[in-house]
């Protein structure tokens, strides 16, 4: 069986290649091919091309591994599963906002052991291996610690379905007066890496899927953050929370009474 470092090396090579392809092929305004949960939840041709490239490269080296991709769903089965978001932040990609990423994680026996988030427009590649720390450009990352809720800069995101957005706005109205400020970047993977790098103090979001948080969540966890859901649950599409211990609990206790997992 390959080690976490082996998986990480392969994942990083593939994420870098996919990023280079996306930069080279991206037109001035990418064409929307389809929508998913709502008319504003879009898919471009390059989402699909990126995932096809990533899947092909994985299969060249590890043909028996399973792959979960945002666009292509699950293929294969086995102890090793790759979790792929070919473009996290597709709306940013569509509009030319430089906050989108290629995210690749590797899961062995149900545990994420390696993760890469290539924030392509910024040329930043975040990496983490289970037990080996989180890294950016040769520098080991540590999340901010000892920050009280009232002084915390919190990242979040919003869904695409109107009923969900209505509840998210309601929750945000309660959170905003109790924190330093809110940031909305448009990419969950990028937000989690920003937390690992100390660029924000905490993160919460209703709706992210496994491919959104698998790699970035490992980066944040290896930088010292706690990652989870409400009431002791693991991170999940109902709600995903991330912050240093202490702030995690404060943010959790602020959000839990607001019932943030519901939709209107």
TrEMBL record:
Q: Which InterPro entries match?
A: IMPase, Inositol_monoP_metal-BS, Inositol_monophosphatase-like, Inositol_monophosphatase_CS
Gene Ontology terms: biological process? inositol metabolic process; phosphatidylinositol phosphate biosynthetic process; signal transduction
**Catalytic activity, reaction form:** a myo-inositol phosphate + H2O = myo-inositol + phosphate; L-histidinol phosphate + H2O = L-histidinol + phosphate
Nucleotidyltransferase in keyword set: no
| Assigned keywords, A-Z | Hydrolase, Magnesium, Metal-binding
Is Kinase included in the keywords of this UniProt record? no
Pfam families tied to this protein: Inositol_P (PF00459)
Q: Which cofactor does it need?
A: Mg(2+)
Q: What is its EC number?
A: 3.1.3.25
GO: which molecular function terms?
histidinol-phosphatase activity; inositol monophosphate 1-phosphatase activity; metal ion binding
Query: In which residues is Mg(2+) bound?
Result: 70, 85, 87-88, 212
Q: In which pathway does it act?
A: Amino-acid biosynthesis; L-histidine biosynthesis; L-histidine from 5-phospho-alpha-D-ribose 1-diphosphate: step 8/9
Q: Which CDD domains match?
A: IMPase
Q: What class of enzyme is it?
A: hydrolase
Q: What does this protein do?
A: Catalyzes the dephosphorylation of histidinol-phosphate to histidinol, the direct precursor of histidine.
Family of the protein in this entry: Belongs to the inositol monophosphatase superfamily.
- Protein's recorded name: Inositol-1-monophosphatase
* Organism placement in taxonomy: Bacteria, Bacillati, Actinomycetota, Actinomycetes, Streptosporangiales
């Amino acid at each position: 069986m390959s080690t976490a470092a082996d998986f990480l090396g392969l994942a990083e090579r593939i994420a870098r290649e996919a990023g280079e392809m996306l930069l080279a092929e991206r037109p001035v305004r990418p064409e929307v091919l389809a929508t998913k949960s709502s008319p504003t939840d879009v898919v471009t041709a390059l989402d699909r091309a990126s995932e096809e490239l990533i899947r092909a490269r994985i299969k060249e080296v590890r043909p028996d591994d399973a792959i979960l991709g945002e666009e292509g769903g699950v293929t294969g089965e086995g102890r090793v599963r790759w979790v792929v978001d070919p473009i996290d932040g597709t709306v940013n990609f569509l509009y030319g906002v430089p906050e989108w990423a290629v995210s690749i994680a590797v899961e062995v026996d149900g545990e994420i052991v390696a993760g890469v988030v290539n924030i392509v427009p910024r040329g930043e590649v975040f990496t983490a291996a289970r037990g080996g720390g989180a890294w950016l450009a040769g520098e080991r990352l540590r999340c901010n610690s000892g920050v009280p809720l009232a002084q915390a800069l919190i990242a979040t995101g919003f869904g695409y379905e109107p009923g969900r957005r209505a509840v998210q706005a309601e929750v945000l109205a309660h959170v905003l007066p109790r924190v330093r400020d809110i940031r909305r970047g448009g990419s969950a993977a990028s937000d989690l890496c920003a937390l690992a790098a100390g660029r924000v103090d905490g993160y919460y979001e209703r709706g992210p899927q496994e491919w959104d948080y698998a790699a970035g969540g490992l980066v944040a966890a290896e930088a010292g953050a706690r990652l989870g859901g409400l009431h002791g649950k693991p991170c999940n599409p109902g709600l995903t929370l991330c912050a240093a211990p202490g702030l995690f609990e404060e943010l959790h206790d602020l959000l839990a009474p607001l019932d943030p997992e519901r939709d209107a």
